[in-house]
Write a structure and sequence with these properties.
Blueprint (H helix, E strand, L loop, with lengths): L24 H19 L4 E2 H8 L3 H13 L3 E7 L7 E6 L5 E7 L3 E8 L4 E8 L6 H20 L12 H10 L12 H12 L5 H6 L27 H7 L11 E8 L3 E2 L4 E2 L13 H9 L3 E5 H10 L13 E6 L3 E7 L2 E3 L29 H10 L3 H19 L3 E5 L1 H5 L1 H19 L8 E3 L6 H11 L10
Parallel strand pairs: 4-7, 7-10, 11-14, 14-15
Antiparallel strand pairs: 1-3, 2-3, 4-5, 5-6, 8-9, 11-12, 12-13
């Protein structure tokens, strides 16, 4: 590796230091490339010059030239024209090539599946929507995800004569999605991420099973006596489990699709984002312990990231141009009301998942101790009260309950704004935005705050905000925008 690629004037920060205090040069190089990629992305079609890139990243002009040279060579950046300079010859302007990479985002709701295919710019290029019962069993759900993903990717991305080969740059991007190194596309052939990618491909779909077993993670196809999987009988009852069925049918159907980086899946929690393992999904406890990420990776042959629906939507909003989610440095709560109720929290531009990735279970704060039972097992939860009001057509009461929960959250966290989304909100946006805002306004007046109430807005993206955010689970880290805690 050329050490000068990491030579910058202001690239220090968390995540690029080695255990002994020295710079981790591969991480630093990826970090610097992510800075450049993000500026190319946000510059849009007008582009940005190398001098501007150096000024805004704090990197040396030489480092910027090497990074942009690699990005151009791998098809990730291209010239966007020339711009007059204050002296000397006109500056060459560069821009991102959005079609050089794509990601799939899937929103698994309790009663439907929505899938989108987006390019590096986050623009939706194809979309699918289909009914789906989340309680129908693992094989049915996995088959629905695989079918939608394969239809979107193959119809939009396969080209005649492509022979399934990745174009320049796409292999490194996919390695970044798989290995968590930012912008590994810039590392090129022979890099650790490229080597790891080739090794993984050579080992085949079952290569990671022993590693996962060693870490104590249940892997697709692994059976434990008496264990149940969603929709299946105990493994000792003489029938192959749906997990094993999914593994047995694995063909890596998407692994050869050009430019596809991977698949992001968002669904109701709680779940373990780091391991991609589901917990007792509210209303569907049979999913507890299911390794959804591994099952889909083995079936589809591409990297998969799993997160809660609200976290995915919050991430998508946080990376939107123009600060649609409060701006890169802002804080906000995204409240999602659909078949359930939850929250995605963003602080300082990053999604807050908590120590056990369980933050945001907003719908299960108890407002009424003797209230109606909730699917979580408690009584009087915000979700139960809100959905009951929606069911009887009392949207004003539903908005008041939601506003009460939102006011508690705003007072606890002192956030900049509240964003509302989800199918139920989308069906009556004014009723919910005005109703929730009224509760926050009343609370602000009682407390005598000088800055007024926390503003309440309708979240951009509409009903596909979660699916778009799911795709950003793959894309955002490539641009250095995937950090959170």
């Amino acid at each position: 590796m050329n050490r000068s690629d990491g030579g910058g004037k202001g690239t220090g920060g968390g995540g690029v230091r080695g255990a002994a205090g020295g710079a981790n040069l591969l991480a630093l190089r990826s970090h610097n490339t992510a800075l450049v990629l993000d500026l190319l992305r946000t510059a849009g079609t007008e582009g940005i010059s190398r001098l501007e890139l150096a000024e805004r990243t704090g990197l040396t002009p030489q480092a910027v030239s090497k990074i942009t040279g690699r990005l151009r060579g791998e098809g990730l950046a291209t010239e966007a024209g020339r711009r007059a300079s204050t002296g000397g010859k006109p500056r060459t302007v560069l821009r991102l090539v959005p079609g050089a990479g794509h990601a799939l985002g899937v929103h698994l709701d309790r009663d439907e599946l929505r899938a989108v295919l987006v390019d590096l710019d986050g623009t939706v290029v194809a979309e699918r929507r289909a009914p789906l019962d989340l309680g129908a069993g693992a094989e049915t759900v996995l088959a629905g995800v695989a079918r939608s993903a394969e239809e979107l990717a193959t119809e939009a991305l396969r080209s005649p004569g492509a022979e399934g080969l990745l174009p320049p740059g796409a292999g490194g991007l996919r390695a970044a999605a798989a290995g968590g190194l930012r912008a590994a596309a810039a590392d090129g052939p022979g890099s650790p991420t490229e080597d790891a990618l080739r090794t993984s491909a050579a080992e085949g779909p079952g290569a990671s099973a022993s590693k996962e077993q060693a870490r104590g993670v249940r892997v697709p196809g692994e059976q434990v006596a008496g264990e149940r999987v969603p929709g299946g009988r105990a493994s000792g009852e003489g029938r192959e489990s749906p997990v094993a069925e999914g593994a047995r049918s694995a063909g890596g159907a998407l692994g050869a699709v050009p430019t596809l980086l991977g698949l992001g899946v968002a669904l109701p929690g709680p779940l373990d984002h780091g391991r991609g393992v589901l917990h007792r999904v509210t209303g569907f406890p049979e999913w507890d312990g299911y390794p959804l990420r591994d099952a889909l990776e083995r079936r589809l042959g591409v990297p998969v990231v799993v997160d809660k629906d609200t976290n995915a939507a919050a991430l998508g909003l946080a990376v939107r141009d123009g600060g649609g989610g409060g701006g890169a440095g802002g804080s906000f709560a995204y409240l999602h009301l659909g078949t359930g109720l939850g929250a995605g929290l963003v602080f300082g531009g990053g999604v807050h998942r908590g120590a056990r990735t369980g933050a945001g279970e907003f719908g299960h704060q108890v407002l009424q101790l003797d209230g109606p039972p909730c699917t979580c097992g408690a009584r009087g939860c915000v979700e139960a009260l809100c959905l009951a009001a929606v069911a009887r057509g009392d949207l004003a009461e539903a908005a008041r309950v939601l506003g009460t929960g939102a006011a508690n959250l705003a007072a606890l966290l002192d956030i900049d704004q509240v964003l509302l989304g989800g199918r139920t909100v989308a069906a009556a946006p004014e009723a919910f935005v005005h109703g929730v805002a009224a509760v926050l306004d009343a609370r602000a007046r009682r407390e005598g705050g000088h800055d007024g109430a926390v503003p309440v807005r309708l979240a951009p993206g509409g009903t596909r905000a979660v699916a778009e955010g799911a795709a950003q689970l793959l894309l955002a880290p490539l641009f250095g925008r995937g950090d959170g805690d």
